[in-house]
Write a structure and sequence with these properties.
By secondary structure, this protein is α/β, with parallel strands linked by helices. The chain has 11 helices and 12 strands. The strands form 3 sheets. The chain has a 6-stranded mixed β-sheet, with helices on both faces. It has a 4-stranded antiparallel β-sheet with strand order 6-7-9-8.
């Protein structure tokens, strides 16, 4: 749902429809030029940039549901002031972070290339999100290519999973640097359940149980991890073994591994520091409009990630600085 700022007064009349219902807000506010002149024809026309932002943010907080999150793009000039306003409106206890968006070096800089922007992130009620065990995740890039390659190898080698795993490792090696699938190259083994990587089977932090586990071929007790087994008792361990989730070595002299399947771990957290070349968004908008209208449009895929992480398929999404329509484009793509 996008609403232009000049419709602010009209928006107030329909506020009850939005109160406490918006799941995700993304805004890319107008640049602070150091003057009090803004293109928005409302009661903030003669006010300062921070006053303009503060009142809108107060209204935004009223719109947000208890699950609500707000993401604001901002540069060095505005970041510190906006951060203080955000803490005032949302409370320091609802701070998440400032994400750093590296958009490409500028070789014409006099001192240091200031090529980063920020995305300031706050939530409506961080304590509520914790109680609801809410975790923000986005689907890992490149995993569909991995699944497709495994299917091709299965058609070629049938149920020879050792050969399939070997060929999968070679495929990862052949990928160019920067290919999205390459970052998941540790998922390089395959069995009848899918693609997995052999992970640690020990108790996090140490102090786990130390019962005996016997090798399925030699029948002898295998080496135990120093921190103890990840499973709290023998019954749970035996269940995992029966399900084929434990990878044993050739004999009892190595510690078994826990199979962690890609299809069970498709989500990943958002990176607090990330690179995304801004020129791609500029070219995308030029291709759509056939001309150059906005100098610095935001990248659609980046906004997709924010919405996917903090929202769901039924979420109401708000952007009250419509701009080039990046938020709408991102929602359509999702």
């Amino acid at each position: 749902w996008l609403v232009k700022s000049e419709n602010y007064q009209a928006l107030n009349t329909i506020l009850p429809k939005f109160r406490e219902k918006v799941r995700v807000i993304y805004i890319d506010p107008p640049y602070n030029t150091g003057t009090d002149e803004f293109i928005y024809r409302d009661r903030y026309q003669r006010s300062s940039w921070l006053s303009m932002m503060a009142d809108r943010l107060k209204l935004a907080r009223e719109w947000m549901s208890s699950y609500g999150a707000i993401f604001i793009s901002v540069d060095d000039n505005q970041h510190d002031s906006l951060w203080l306003v955000m803490k005032s409106v949302f409370g320091e206890e609802n701070t998440i972070t400032s994400m750093v968006w590296e958009g490409g070096l500028k070789n014409d800089s006099r001192f240091i290339s200031v090529s980063q922007d920020y995305i300031v992130v706050f939530v409506k009620d961080k304590e509520y999100l914790s109680k609801q065990n809410v975790r923000w995740r986005v689907r890992k890039e490149g995993i569909d290519e991995i699944y497709a390659q495994v299917e091709r190898l299965k058609r070629q080698f049938g149920n020879d999973y050792d050969r399939i795993s070997q060929e999968l490792k070679q495929w990862y090696s052949s990928l160019p640097r920067g290919h999205p699938a390459k970052q998941h190259r540790h998922y390089n083994m395959v069995d009848d359940r899918g693609v997995f990587f052999p992970g640690d089977i020990s108790w996090p932090g140490g102090g786990g149980p130390a019962y005996e586990v016997y090798h399925p071929v030699t029948g002898k007790p295998v080496r135990k991890p120093q921190r103890g087994w990840v499973f709290p008792n023998e019954e749970r361990m035996q269940e995992a073994i029966r399900e084929g989730r434990v990878l044993f070595g050739p004999d009892e002299n190595s510690v078994p591994k826990l199979k962690r399947y890609l299809h069970e771990t498709e989500g990943q957290v958002l990176w607090p520091v990330f690179y995304k070349d801004r020129r791609a968004a500029f070219q995308q908008l030029r291709d759509i409009l056939g001309t150059d209208v906005y100098a610095n449009p935001k990248d659609t895929e980046t906004i997709e990630d924010l919405i996917e992480a903090a929202g769901d398929a039924n979420s109401l999404i708000l952007d009250f600085f419509a701009g080039s329509g990046t938020t709408a484009h991102a929602v359509i793509n999702l």
